[in-house]
Structure formats: C-alpha cells, structure tokens
Design goal:
- This protein has eight helices and 31 strands.
- It has 492 residues and is mainly beta.
- It is globular.
- 11% of the residues lie in helices and 40% in strands.
- The strands form six sheets. Strands 11-10-13-18-15-16 form a six-stranded mixed beta sheet, with no helix packed on it. It has a six-stranded mixed beta sheet with strand order 22-21-24-29-26-27, with no helix packed on it.
C-alpha cells in the first residue's frame, strides 16, 4: 500500500504522550520530577487535526546535573514540538498554572490575530483553561515557527523563565529529496538567569534596560550537547533563538555551511556562509556536510556587541555589567561528532533551486517608524516617540495592500523588529539594497541604521502588534498596535 506524506506524518504520533501528560499532572508539585529527563514530546497532526493539551507551570528541571526551577509547557524545556501541514486544523487546550496571567503567541504563523487564534490581547488568568482553535491556510509555506507567551508586561519574564516551543509546518521544502534524505536536528537556544539555588532571578533596572541575559545557556535544555553525524552525510539544523535578549552570532569553527530557510520558510537557493547572526525570535535552517577532516565540529557563539547604555550605564551599575551584556567571549554551544560510516555514502549535492520567491511590488503606502528610548512615566522604549498604550491604535492598514516601512534606529542599542501575522521582505539597509530575497517576520535594525521592509497584508483583518523582540524593551513600551481593516482609510 502506498503511503502519502500526510499519512506518513500522522503515523508518528505515539499514544505514550498521553501517559507523559498524566504523569506531569500528577507530579507537577514534586521536587523529584526533573522535566527534561522525560523523552521530548512531539505532537503531529493526524487526519488533518493537530490536537494538544498544554499546561504552563513552574517545574524543577535538571540542567547539567543541577535543579533549576523553570517555567514550562507540559514540564518540558524546551516545550513540546508541534508539527502540522498546510490545511490542518489546530486545537490547543491550554491551562495556566502560573502565578500570573498569560497567553500564547504563535510566532511566524500566518493565522488570524483575533478570537481564539493568534490573539496577543488575551489574558488567561491563573488556573483558567482556554481553548485555542485555528486553521493553517491551505497555501501556508513550510517553516520553522514557534510559540511563546505574549501578554504585555509579562512577556520577557515568562519567556526568560523557559516558556518556548517549536511549531513546525511541514511542506514543500521537506519534499525535496536532497533535503528529505538529510539527518534532521532541532536546536532551541535559551538562556536562564538563575541564582545559586536554581531559582529565576529578578531583573535589575539596567538588565531591564539592556534586556536580560541569563548566565546559563542551553541547547534543547542541555549544556553543550553532542550531535552525531556520519561522514559523507548531510545534517539539517533547524535553529530557534528563544532567548529573551541574547544575540547568537553562530559559527562552525569557520567551516562553511548553507542557509536554506529563514523565518518565513525556504529561500530561493542555498547560500554558503561561515557566520549566522540570530537575534531574539529569529529562526534559520542550515545544511552541514559531514566531510570535514576533523573528527568534530563546534557550534560556537561568537562575540557580538548589540550596544548599551555606555558611560551612563557603567555609572548606574558601578561598572562590570555592560561588557557581559555585549558577549565579549565565545561560547561552545554544541559539538557535532563526525563518525566514520560503514555505508558507502554517495556524494549528494544540494539543489540549486529550493523555492520561488517573487519580490513584492511597489507599495500603496510608505511609513516610517523611529526606534529610541526616553522617559514616559519612567524609563521607556519608544516607537515614534510614544510608549505603548493598549487602547491606542498606532497604525491602520488596508487588507490586500502592500506597504513599505522604514525602520529608523536613532538609539544606542540594536533592536530586532517583529511584526505579527504577515511576513515581509527586507528591501534595503541605509539605502543599500538587500542581497538576499527572503521572507522574514523579524529583522535586526542596528543602532544608527535605516532598514526598509515591504509587507503585504493578506487574508486576515483585526488588531495585532509590532514590537522590538528584545522583550524587556517591548514590555517597557517599544510596541505598537496595528489595525488591519478590510475597508477604510489608512492613517498617516
């Protein structure tokens, strides 16, 4: 009997996940439960339906032999991986067992921003259950998306506590034989601010201003894990930066690798590189060939200076903090061990064509957004001189139109800029055209930089947001409300 792709994906859903959930519910308050000693949960759609129960709660987790008390979905660090394909219906029964209100943002998915879909304005109270329900559009691209909390004022604290998981949309990129035959690994990068007792620390003022970074950096909840790869084989790494503020400037011992996908899915053709900068919220997919003469490759986070408060910051904090925030030392994140294979591996080359991407047409509307910090009832981060106001509509756009936004960073820190619901294309940086045509939902705007992006508002109307994805900056005001209208006049 011939099995199609949907049937093949569905066959991998194991009944044991229900047993794991039951055990988590029964043992959630026991210090003896170390969440990441359980096998990672993977939920895949079946017969066009992805149905999941998620519970947010504090859980003791084993990190490098020590107990850390983190915030988890279903007791997992990272959270369970969700997998669906275009056209699937998604039903998520979510229970909040945190001490704070929360919600879930489906970062990267092109779904409705209203009701019980990707609604950033929901407030799910402690001990409350909420049923999310939405449908992945039939034409949705394959991509590495993710999910995390997004209740304004709590976002940074809850994400830095550990609440993050992958949401994979399988599709056309996975059907390319050379990609499909590669070994696939998923990497979720998180850092945790922990005290000596394994408890999450409160963020001091300068840490909030810079954006908090934790001293414990994990890959899939582990410290410096090992990945095995046979020589002659390809490795496909899907990488998510799920940290609240930390930038990851990735290198593979200066060995080349190949970018095949960004936030919004596959790029047109593989791009060889030796560095990959991922800001908070960004994802990338890369291909690595196991042909190095060495026995292993190190995945390294290189130094990156994302700016800071300068002399003012050093005076306020007595010095010492700012250098650490700028990642002045390299860190080994993981090791890829290259093994001799007993099989006669044929040399497989990557295809020249991965996807067809059409540049968006000339815009119907042009806007500018200035990113900076200032004072608004205390220290605040601002867009166009305004701190976030839940009731205010900052930008109104029309459905089925294309807009060009110029993002201008006049501050002293880099800001990754994220838009919900619709992906965009980067057009230029300081009027220099962008070389890589790709779909993104988060773009870095360096200090002193002007970045032009082009976005088409498709399919969904309603209120959503755009913001800095250094989530302390978002919580401190660097966010705006975006109203997508089917009719009406755009605001200037």
């Amino acid at each position: 009997m011939k099995i199609n792709r949907r049937q093949l994906l569905n066959l991998t859903l194991f009944a044991t996940t229900a047993i794991i959930i039951k055990n988590l519910q029964q043992n959630s308050n026991q210090d003896t439960l170390w969440a990441n000693e359980l096998k990672p949960q993977i939920y895949k759609s079946k017969n066009g339906l992805l149905e999941v129960e998620l519970i947010a709660q504090e859980t003791p987790v084993n990190i490098d032999g020590k107990t850390a008390y983190l915030l988890t979905y279903n007791g997992q660090i990272p959270a369970p991986r969700l997998e669906a394909i275009a056209g699937d219906k998604v039903k998520i029964k979510f229970t909040n067992k945190l001490a704070q209100p929360t919600n879930i943002h489906y970062h990267g998915l092109h779904i409705s921003p209203t009701g019980n879909a990707d609604n950033a304005f929901l407030e799910i109270q402690p001990n409350q259950t909420f049923n999310y329900e939405f449908t992945i559009p039939d034409n949705h691209p394959s991509m590495t998306a993710w999910y995390h909390p997004h209740l304004h004022g709590y976002t940074a604290q809850q994400l830095s506590g550990g609440l993050a998981g992958l949401f994979i949309i399988k599709g056309e990129l996975d059907d390319i034989p050379e990609i499909n035959s590669a070994k696939e690994e998923f990497i979720v990068l998180q850092d945790f601010p922990l005290d000596n007792n394994g408890r999450l620390t409160d963020s001091r003022m300068m840490s909030l201003m810079m954006g908090r970074e934790g001293d414990v950096i994990t890959v899939n909840g582990e410290i410096k894990p090992q990945i095995s790869l046979n020589k002659g084989e390809w490795l496909r790494l899907r990488i998510l930066n799920a940290s609240t503020s930390r930038f990851y400037n990735l290198s593979l011992d200066d060995n080349p690798f190949y970018l095949i996908a960004t936030d919004g899915g596959a790029i047109a053709s593989p791009q060889e590189m030796t560095r990959l900068l991922l800001t908070p919220g960004q994802r990338a997919e890369i291909m690595i060939k196991g042909e190095n003469k060495q026995s292993s490759l190190k995945l390294i986070n290189l130094p990156y200076n994302r700016g800071g408060m300068g002399m003012m910051g050093n005076r306020m904090m007595g010095g010492g903090m700012m250098g650490r925030r700028n990642n002045n030392s390299s860190q080994i994140l993981a090791t890829i061990n290259l093994n001799q294979s007993n099989q006669n591996n044929q040399s497989v080359s990557l295809p020249n064509q991965l996807n067809t991407i059409t540049a968006l047409p000339s815009p119907n509307q042009v806007r500018s957004f200035t990113l900076n910090h200032g004072m608004a009832n205390g220290m605040a981060f601002l867009i166009n001189g305004k701190s976030y106001n839940h009731q205010r509509i900052d930008t109104e756009v029309k459905l089925n139109t294309v807009e060009e936004w110029e993002l201008i960073n006049t501050g002293i820190m880099d800001h990754p800029f994220h838009i919900h619901v619709n992906s965009f294309q980067v057009i230029s940086r300081n009027d220099i055209p962008e070389n890589l045509l790709a779909w993104r939902d988060t773009v870095l705007v360096k200090r002193g930089e002007r970045v032009k992006i082009r976005i088409r508002f498709d399919d969904f109307t309603g209120k959503t947001v755009y913001h800095c994805h250094i989530l302390d900056h978002e919580d401190l005001g660097m966010m705006g409300n975006l109203q997508i209208n089917s009719v009406g006049v755009n605001s200037e």
